[in-house]
Amino acid sequence: MYCVFNETLIGQSYVQHIRQLKETREGRRYPLLKDGRAIIRVKDGLYFGEINNGETIAISNDIDEVEKRLKHADSSVNITVRYDGRNFNVEDYKLTKLPRIFRVAYSEAGDHGLIITIDDYKNGHYSEIRLFYDVDKVIKYIRRRGGKDGNFYVYGRQPAEDFRERVGGIKALDVPKQLRNIKHLQHVIIRRQSAGSHEAFIEQQRKERRDDKIISIYGNLGSIGSEQDDEYEIEDHGRYETESREEYGYLIGDYYD
After folding, report:
1. How confident is the model at residue 212 (pLDDT cuts 50, 70, 90)?
2. How many other CB atoms sit within 10 Å of the CB of residue 79?
3. Closest to 43 measured CA to CA, from 30, 32, 26, 56
4. CA 228/CA 181 separation, integer angstroms
5. 64-93 pLDDT tens trace
6. How many angstroms separate the Cα of 12 from the Cα of each of 6, 15, 18, 19, 254?
7. In this structure, are residues 184 and 86 in contact, taking their beta carbons and an 8 Å threshold?
8. Angle at CA 155, nearest 5°, toward 126 and 171?
9. What per-residue confidence (pLDDT) applies to 17?
């Protein structure tokens, strides 16, 4: 048993809560959080806020309430969300509740013709980038990967006027700022154009993979995890069916310079 006290910073024109302290029966006071860290565990639709190696101080079906309670214990607490065998910060965990989001970039510049790059995010996983040269194949890929329930959203410039109507999915979604960055997709297009031809670009890919110069960073966010997509696994290792790679795009991976 112990008592809990609030530690507050009082200035000339403000009052700021800092943390909570606990007092033992002997009258000694210590920070309620011993190491400044806390864990939110997700179980059966509830969120459990834990400190000090397992002491639960908050339970709710709203993660924001649990986060608020932990920050009241220590305003500078480092919170880790444990979910599905992985670790997230609170904001990244919230992204796992979104539908699948496809991110698209394209270019029709000069003599290069139409070049489309695409990746997607779902449940904390970023797919690798795929390269297409045909709008119809992109639509077929998205609809198949997105699922029959249509619970997906396509973000980015559309490569055809009727693209969104044909591809289906959710009509509107407030895409979080963390997922709006598509510079990595545009970068692949620039590299493909610089290579001059698809064949030269693929050969460049092979060389860079051999030399370990390609680093997967999954949308410039840092990898929470890459989704291993066996159904669409068509990475070029020198031998594969032409029809398959054209149908589901050329698996590229992300670049980091």
Report:
1. low
2. 19
3. 56
4. 22
5. 999 999 999 999 999 999 999 999 999 999
6. 19, 8, 16, 20, 52
7. no
8. 120
9. 83
Mean pLDDT across the chain, nearest whole number?
A: 83
> What is the side-by-side strand order in the sheet with 86-88?
55-60, 46-51, 37-43, 78-83, 86-88
Instruction: Classify strands 152-156 and 100-107 as parallel, antiparallel or unpaired.
Output: parallel
Q: Is the pLDDT of residue 238 over 60?
A: no
Number of Cβ atoms within 10 Å of the Cβ of 82: 16
Q: What is the mean pLDDT of residues 142-170?
A: 94
Say which residue the tokens 């297409």 belong to.
132
Indicate the residue type of 60.
Answer: S
Task: Report CA 9 to chain centroid distance, whole Å.
Answer: 37
Residue 220 confidence (pLDDT): 36
Kindly give, in sequence order, each residue whose CB lies less than 8 Å from that of residue 155, ignoring residues fewer than 6 positions away. Answer: 101, 102, 103, 104, 173, 175, 179, 180, 182
Burial readout 181-194 (b: 16 or more C-beta within 10 A, e: otherwise): ebebbebbbebbbe
State the distance between the two ends of the chain, measured CA to CA, in whole angstroms.
Answer: 55
Stated length of the chain: 257
Q: Would you say residue 255 has pLDDT above 50?
A: no
Q: Region 129-146: what's the mean pLDDT?
A: 94
